Amino acid sequence: MNTMIQNQETEKLLRETFTKNRDTIERFSADLMNRRRKEALEHFMQEGIPGRKTESYKYTDMPGLFSPLLHMNLQPNHVHMDVKEIFQCDVPELDTHIIFLVNGFLPPNSTPLEELEGKVLVGSLAEAARRHPELLEKHYDRYTSLNPEGLVSLNTAFAQDGLFLYIPDGTKLERPIQVVNMSVWEDNLMIQQRNLFILGKNSAASLIICDHTLAPWRFLNNAVTEIFLDEQARFDLSRVQNENNSSQHISHTFARQETASTMTSNTITLHGGLVRNNFYALLNGEHAENNTYGLYLSDRNQHIDNFSFIDHAAPNCTSNQLFKGVLDDQATGAFTGRIRVRQDAQKTMAYQSNNNILLTDEARINTKPQLEIYADDVKCSHGATVGQLDPAALFYLRSRGINYREARLMLMYAFAHDIISHIAVPPLRERIGDLVDKRLRGELSRCNACHINCGKLNY
After folding, report:
1. Which of 193, 256, 263, 396 is the right S-S partner for 104, CB 3.0 to 4.6 Å?
2. For range 131-160, the mean pLDDT
3. Closest among 56, 50, 51 to 309, alpha carbons compared
4. What is the pTM for the complete model shown?
5. What pLDDT, in 10s, does the model give residues 240-284?
6. Does the residue 67 lie in any domain?
7. Domain contains 431
């Protein structure tokens, strides 16, 4: 079938699915979210699923992910499991607030919306919309305009729940929040999760998101996260993606930063059949700082695609982008990084780098750094490298009595450490360093932290 016709058929099926299940979708959500659905669906039908002719998706087959169309779980109580009892993937020595999400919903036995110290709110997005509509009215679906593509609108049309985080003005959350984000079903499943994080003036928080699949089925997660940082807010976001080789994960993260705010994000992709991470940041206030880091380790036929767009709209702002990848076997990947400096954004400092190591002749990576500068008093740079392990460094290590395998591992870990070192929480940094080391050694096939042993599902 012609690709365009196939896409149109898929989009038509998605519209029919929405129409048929609209009552169910809206019953398990909040009025404020429901009011956005019709317009979002119409926008999705106009934009469609991005194909390879869309420049930013040139190297990733998005339409193929939606055909055949997967089942959607539209009722949060359908999965019955005591996740706290069976899943204990917390980071040792890291004192965290732990939140569980199953297929985009909080489990039935969870507290819908918790109040932590300093009147911090964390929990269900749908519940937050019911209890605090004034917060969502101001922030929900307000920051996606940086990239109003079809898949974001598809999420807005279908999303019923997800994670909500609110840090009031002047509150600095001492303990990190850890989110264990699980996909589990008896068959293939599509998930539409929506997250909203709001940080008030002079506030601070750290959030850790761990993505897992607890079954060997094909999961397609189309997730949207909106983040607002008010003046002088500080936010550290770490994400570990460790899903099975049948899974596909599309993540859209939108951040708006006001004056003197700082956001640092670290995304570590350990496993996943196909992963597409979209990062968008609008530096809207003077002296805002954004640091976006990513590490992807892939093998077999895995495909990892990272896209970042940092928009400097105010003067005296700083951004740093660093993405690194190690690709083995027949793995493929892509990186597109874009920096835009608007005319009034003088004194901007923006740096971007993408470095890749290919361990085989069959591994492939496409990298495209971009600068779009309309101001004249700026310091900006971008670059990309694709290569193999340094033979001179290998020779040096082997001449010191280190065997070939260990020498390769040492060089790969040193390459990856640039990203790991930017993780702000020391116990988390140590734990992720251990996971990366095991992944590079090929030992991340079994995790014994709980009864699930979910690591074995990656192979």
Report:
1. 193
2. 94
3. 56
4. 0.94
5. 999 999 999 999 999 999 999 999 999 999 999 999 999 999 999
6. yes
7. no
